[in-house]
Design goal:
- The chain is an alpha+beta fold.
- The chain has a three-stranded antiparallel β-sheet with strand order 2-1-3.
- The protein has a domain at about 10-80.
- The chain is flat, with a radius of gyration of 27 Å.
- It has helices at about 10-15, 35-45, 50-60, 100-105; strands spanning about 15-20, 30-35, 70-75.
- It is about 25% helix and about 10% strand.
- Bound molecules: zinc ion (ZN).
- Zinc ion (ZN) binds near residues 23, 25, 63 and 65.
Length: about 130
């Protein structure tokens, strides 16, 4: 699948991707939050290439909590993509009997439930 490459700040602003910043003031501040791309554009221009210039970007970006520059950048999403609902990977889709009632009538008790004879499954009063 071909998705347009997102490189410049303008493209990030227009895409579903966000740039999350992790404060690099380890052990002291664990602030994390999305980069305010609009502000980065004001400073660096909308055609600023994030991948080529992220060190420069980091030098302009500081933690709003502790004020330390040079956060660690991490790519994120404005809206959580489908990968978070289990559709990622294209493997087996789990089917619940709640959404597929037909499976209920097809249910067969596994043989091992019957080991020991029917008596072991009685919970009523002894006779
Ligand atoms: Zn911080």
């Amino acid at each position: 699948m071909a998705t347009a490459e997102v490189r410049t700040l303008r493209q990030f602003l227009e895409s579903d991707q966000v740039i999350d910043c992790d404060c690099s003031n380890y052990w002291i501040c664990s602030h994390t939050g999305p980069l305010r791309i609009e502000l980065a554009i004001l400073r660096l221009g909308s055609e600023f290439d994030f991948y080529a210039g992220r060190h420069e970007l980091a030098a302009h970006t500081y933690c709003s909590v502790c004020g330390k520059f040079h956060p660690t950048f991490r790519l994120g999403w404005k809206t959580r993509p489908a990968t978070y609902t289990g559709l990622h990977g294209g493997g087996a889709t789990p089917i619940s009997v709640l959404t597929a009632p037909a499976l209920l009538s097809a249910w067969v008790e596994p043989d091992d439930w019957l080991v020991g004879g029917k008596g072991v499954r009685k919970f009523g009063p002894r006779r």
